[in-house]
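Lab notebook: predicted structure, single chain.

Context: the supervisor wants predicted structures on file for every construct in the current expression panel, including those that have not yet been purified. This is the next one on the list. No modifications to the sequence; it matches the entry in the shared construct table.
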Amino acid sequence: MLAGKRILLIISGGIAAYKTPDLVRRLRERGAAVRCLLTEGGAQFVTPLTLGAVSEDKVYENLFSLTDEHEMGHINLSREADAIVVAPATANILAKMAHGQADDLATTVLLATDTPVLAAPAMNVRMWDHLATRANLGTLADRGVTIIGPNEGDMACGEYGMGRMSEPLEIVAALKEFFAAAGRLGGHHALVTSGPTYEPIDPVRYIANRSSGKQGHAIAEALTRLGTATTLVTGPTQLPDPPGIHVVHVESARQMMAACEAALPADIAVCAAAVADWRVEAEAGEKIKKSPGGTPPPLTMTENPDILSTLSNAGNQRPGLVVGFAAETENVIVNAQGKLHRKGCDWIVANDVSPDTGTFAGDANTVHLVTADGVEDWPELSKKEVGNRLAARIADALEARNE
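Prediction complete. Output recorded below exactly as produced.
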């Protein structure tokens, strides 16, 4: 799994840096090419000469190197690797990563990259347990950074507890697992819908809902990390377009329906968008003025196209696995089971979006996976982790079909 892979190893200033020459050697034994980036702190524990000898490549240290930066070295370093490994990942560099600092070569590379990042923390147990470190780790995990370890054990400071960097072979195993997972859905095309739809009343006003698009975007990113070519059809959100994903921006349900049909054929369809069920039958060509008596204008409503049902019943164009969402405020499971049968999809992801849950616009979600086999109740997770777990379940299902 590591043969031919290009690894950029960022070595920060912790005592565990002494293990990195062995990590380089272990990776190269398995066919990986390793390039090392040494921070000023890391250079206090291991030398560029040692790392250059074991990697048989140049060691990078200085953001302001005239020779390296002539070719925008920090940009090339950030994009030429198949994965970036930060080991040891001290509390300091984790904090910089979480807050987007870029004050040296290592942090500039990390901020400029769209390459997967894995970090192997190493620090004193009290630093590991500190609320600031826990918050930084949560932020990085939500952004897709894979955390390796740490282990529990004796520390150089004389204390005992969590914070020892994972051993070189453990980091190698984590990388192998990462690359194996990254290819699970290779060769598949995924269609994901996200965000709300805006249904116009007149050129100024529209009907909408409170969806932020965070869950749909997270699912699209998770599927892409597993190897899919992904089309994300999204209504209006405040979110940036995820890198490496073909994004189609729409506003109305009819536009979303047309974009989904244009994206077929697809192997996987996940309809996470909160599509408005109704629209105004005839949009006014000009802004509707308030009447002198204050009487509100009558609005005649008509039903929007049912995207989930259409995809689930698309004949030979039907995606192999169709997943819908059910955003409910009461009877969550019962309503989701009814929707599963009514729409003809394979799975429904049900969640409670009542105002007191904070699901809409929030970063966490509590979902229930409803299938013909029953209901899986998932614990409260970040929306990123819900995306990861759902993508993994999709990969499991497609692999089982091919056995």
